[in-house]
Design brief:
The complex is a heterodimer of chains A (about 500) and B (about 190). Chain A is an alpha+beta fold. Chain A is about 20% helix and about 40% strand. In chain A, a hairpin with a 4-residue loop joins strand 24 and strand 25. Chain A is elongated, with a radius of gyration of 48 Å. The termini of chain A are far apart. In chain B, strand 2 and strand 3 (about 65-70) form a beta hairpin. The chains are: A alpha+beta (about 500), B alpha/beta (about 190). The interface of A and B includes residues 287, 288, 300 and 304 of A. Chain A: Pfam families: BBS1, GAE_BBS1.
Chain lengths: ~500, ~190
């Protein structure tokens, strides 16, 4: 086993924990202007200030680190800096930002694999693990791209895929023989971590908005799930004995959730926020998870041999119907014609609908009024007073019984009196006004009034048509010192039976 | 020796075939321990990780043992439980230098003790804290505490530190087991 450590633009190789080899990323081309400037600076008695002024005018990003330092130096240090460095060969190298490994000619877990490096300039190098020469070199994208996470799958000599997530919020793909990568996924927010699923090469990426996204190998989004904490790292957990691969999602606060596809199947906790998670063999144990937290602790978790993550049960929970489309009927001819009509006569349809709506409201209001006026018993909401009337007798003598009910639960009704109003030519009453004594809460008071119909034969025949409007007695319940009646009601009197009268 | 015990001893001899199950995590030294008890001419020079299981026979104090040397690898541990029913004793081997996996040992032990073929039987269990020669080996007291052996009330158990390469501690442990198996046979008769 060999350990590689990327440091600046160098890859340091350790064999058996001893330094073994140092590989340096090739230097980038240097601007002719800059080369020229340093050439001049190395000559004795040149005016350095003018050359530096020249360098300052070139775009800062195109300069080598040495020139970048020079243009920012205070005046007094410049001379010493030039003396120290002008004789050394000028190089411009790009730091390694991420790396991974790629199997060379066999899928075997112990087979030789090649280091794959990506530099800040967006260059990817695949190295020979023995001679450390460059086997393949490519640029990750034609756009400006700064690699931040790199993952590889496949075999170098046969077919491979290198996936690079960039700080510019996209993911590019590189394949065997390609000299330039292709952007396959564009995200809205920066990518925190990314992994490649074995087998189908799905790409799982976490973004800064607590989301975990899964894409196909071509970059089509399959699903997204939202975590309740920001994601800090991801780790692939391949479980061969269960034929599944889980994704461990490390989150702020120390929770680590295990996802099988988009379903959370288990979770464990670390003492604080995990910054990196690795899963694999450690010593004799095959399934060990090592968690490194931001505060620097290292935690070891061993997977229980009997753990099966209840995967069978989970399958039954997730609705099967979700994956297939809803059984919607085909668009019929009728539907198409209707939608055509709707498009052509939109204004008319709207107006006639509004008309009908107004009409409906009118009918409703009328009905309410009618229902209210038909009530045999009248009431006054505010005073909690209810009045009901009863007419006894066949005529011409009637007895009118009014029942006043106090609906209050705690207040007695006082200072009320009842006033009767009728056409004196038709009815004569025993009393036209009667004072009502105090009605205690919840109780009722009855007023009995004798009514006599004044029948004269001419009237009854001549005014037959008017009978219906005049055979009424109005009752007002009034309060002392109050102009408005508390309650008013109309009592329809029954007609006197002419037979009874003649007898 | 009283008459009763003599009779029991007699019965014990008559029933001299006993089955023991040798279990424990992979690389703990099970095959090396069994190899130590075999006759000189049957001993193997090099021990390789067991695949599945091996059946080995050896003699101890007039008792002839049939040892089922199980593989301790994760993918073969499912096999263990199929031999629980027919065994008279269990030898549980622990690599006392593998501190990381003591939790795994505890897990496997708990599964064993809860198994229906084991939980209601008074079957003797011998623990070997093997590889005691290793620099960072845990003492048998620490292993017993770590595994919670004091909570096993209904079964006779014993732990001895051992070195399977030299044979230290092996004889003592197996003598205890032989004694226990004899006693169970006596009480059963
Ligand atoms: N130092 C030391 N090494 C031992 C001891 N016992 C066994 N070993 C070594 O441990 C390794 C594993 O021993 P095995 O007997 O194969 O272990 P096992 O339990 O049968 O393993 P599996 O068959 O895979 O379950 C071998 O290299 C042994 O030489 C011991 O007491 N001390
Ligand atoms: Mg073995």
């Amino acid at each position: 086993m060999v350990v590689g450590v990327a440091c600046g633009s160098d890859l340091l190789i350790y064999k058996n924990n001893k330094p073994f080899y140092k590989f340096s990323v090739p230097s980038l081309p240097i601007l002719a202007l800059e080369q020229d400037a340093w050439q001049k600076l190395s000559e004795p008695d040149t005016d350095s200030s003018k050359i530096i002024e020249n360098l300052k005018n070139t775009p800062f990003g195109l300069l080598s680190p040495r020139s970048q330092t020079l243009v920012n130096l205070p005046q007094e240090d410049i001379k010493e800096f030039i003396e120290k460095y002008s004789s050394i060969h000028l190089t411009k190298s790009s730091p390694i930002t991420c790396m991974t490994s790629l199997k060379r000619n066999s899928e075997d877990p112990l087979a030789i694999s090649c280091p794959v490096l990506a530099t800040e300039q967006g260059q990817v190098y695949v190295l020979d693990p023995q001679s450390f020469t460059i086997l393949h070199e490519a640029h990750i994208s034609n756009a400006k791209a700064t690699p931040s996470i790199i993952r590889a799958s496949g075999i170098l000599d046969i077919e491979f895929r290198i996936i690079v997530a960039c700080r510019e919020m996209f993911i590019t793909l590189l394949r065997r023989g390609w000299l330039e990568g292709k952007i396959i996924i564009q995200t809205v927010l920066p990518i925190v971590d990314m992994i490649l699923m074995p087998g189908d090469n799905f790409i799982c990426a976490a973004t800064t908005d607590k989301m975990l996204h899964c894409y196909t190998k071509r970059g089509n989004k399959l699903w997204s799930v939202k975590m309740n904490q920001p994601i800090t790292c991801l780790c692939l957990i391949p479980l061969k004995h269960l034929s599944i691969a889980l994704v461990a999602v490390g989150m702020q606060g120390g929770a680590i959730h295990l996802y099988h596809s988009r379903h959370s199947v288990d979770f464990i906790t670390a003492p604080d926020t995990p910054s990196a998670i690795v899963f694999g063999q450690l010593g004799q144990e095959e399934h060990v998870m090592v968690i490194i937290t931001t505060s620097g602790t290292m935690n070891f978790k061993i997977l229980k041999r009997t753990a099966d993550f209840n995967l069978n049960r989970d399958n039954s929970i997730s609705p099967a119907a979700q994956s297939k489309p809803l059984p919607l009927p085909k668009r019929s001819k009728l539907f198409l014609e209707q939608s055509m009509r709707e498009r052509q006569h939109a204004v008319d349809m709207h107006q006639s609908f509004q008309q009908d709506l107004v009409r409906l409201r009118l009918i409703a209001a009328r009905t309410v009024v009618q229902v209210n006026s038909n009530q045999a018993a009248a009431g006054n909401e505010k005073e909690q007073l209810k009045l009901s009337a009863q007419v006894l007798g066949l005529g011409p003598m009637f007895t009118l019984i009014l029942t006043l009910e106090n609906m209050n639960s705690d207040k007695a009704l006082i200072e009320l009196s009842a006033v009767f109003h009728c056409k004196p030519s038709i009815y004569k009453l025993s009393s036209y006004i009667s004072a009502i004594p105090l009605i205690p809460p919840g109780l009722a008071y009855k007023i009995e009034t004798k009514v006599k119909e004044c029948l004269n034969s001419e009237n009854s025949t001549e005014e037959g048509a008017a009978i219906s409007t005049t055979q009424i007695i109005r009752v007002f319940i009034v309060r002392l010192g109050q102009v408005q009646p508390v309650l008013a009601a109309t009592i329809n009197m029954p007609p006197t039976d002419p037979l009874a009268y003649t007898v | 020796m009283g008459l009763f015990q003599k009779l029991a001893f007699f019965l014990g001899i008559r029933r001299k075939e006993v089955n023991v199950l040798v279990i424990g995590l992979n690389n703990s030294g099970k095959s090396t321990i069994i190899n130590h008890f075999k006759d000189e001419e049957e001993k193997v020079a090099e021990i390789v990780p067991t695949v599945g299981f091996n059946v080995e026979k050896f003699q101890n104090q007039n008792l002839s043992f049939t040892a089922f040397d199980m593989s301790g690898h994760g993918r073969y541990r499912d096999l263990w439980e199929h031999y629980y029913k027919d065994c008279h004793g269990i030898i549980f081997v622990i690599d006392s230098s593998d501190r990381l996996r003591l939790v795994v040992v505890k897990d496997e032990l708990d599964l064993l003790l809860q198994h229906p073929d084991i939980c209601n039987r008074k079957i003797p269990i011998l623990f070997f804290g093997n590889k005691m020669d290793c620099k960072d080996a845990l003492s048998s007291v620490k292993i017993a505490a770590g595994l919670g052996l004091d909570k096993i009330m209904d079964k006779p158990w014993h732990i001895s530190a051992s070195n399977a390469l030299t044979g230290d501690g092996l004889q003592e442990g197996v003598e205890w087991l032989t004694q226990q198996i004899r006693e169970t046979i006596v009480t059963r008769n």
